[in-house]
Design brief:
This protein has 98 residues and is of the alpha+beta class. The chain is built from 2 helices and 7 strands, in the order H-H-E-E-E-E-E-E-E. The protein is 22% helix and 42% strand.
Length: 98
């Protein structure tokens, strides 16, 4: 059945099943994440929430993205680099786009 297939995909981490309430809560958290562009190919990402925001993604045409000492996940998609990271409450993260 379709529900069994969805459960299997969820168990295999191929999809993320959620409720509308959780999706809207996450969307509200994202609205309070600010991005500021600096000189020298740097970007500040600031979590203006009192809660952790998980799975924030920044997409850039740069070949590489680094965040100082913070461990971020990088994925390549064609010419673009995607940085994926979590932001602690009030955390300010400076990304270096190269």
């Amino acid at each position: 059945s379709d529900l069994a297939k969805l459960k299997r995909y969820n168990d295999e981490n191929k999809i993320w099943l959620t409720t509308v309430e959780k999706l809207l809560d996450y969307r509200l958290l994202l609205e309070n994440v600010e991005i500021q562009y600096l000189e020298n190919n740097r970007v500040v990402v600031y979590n203006n929430n009192e809660a952790v925001v998980k799975g924030v993604s920044v997409i850039s045409a740069s070949k590489s993205i680094s965040a100082g000492e913070k461990n971020i996940r990088l994925k390549k998609d064609g010419e673009e680099t995607i940085a994926i990271f979590d932001l602690a409450p009030k955390e300010k993260l400076i990304l270096d786009l190269r």
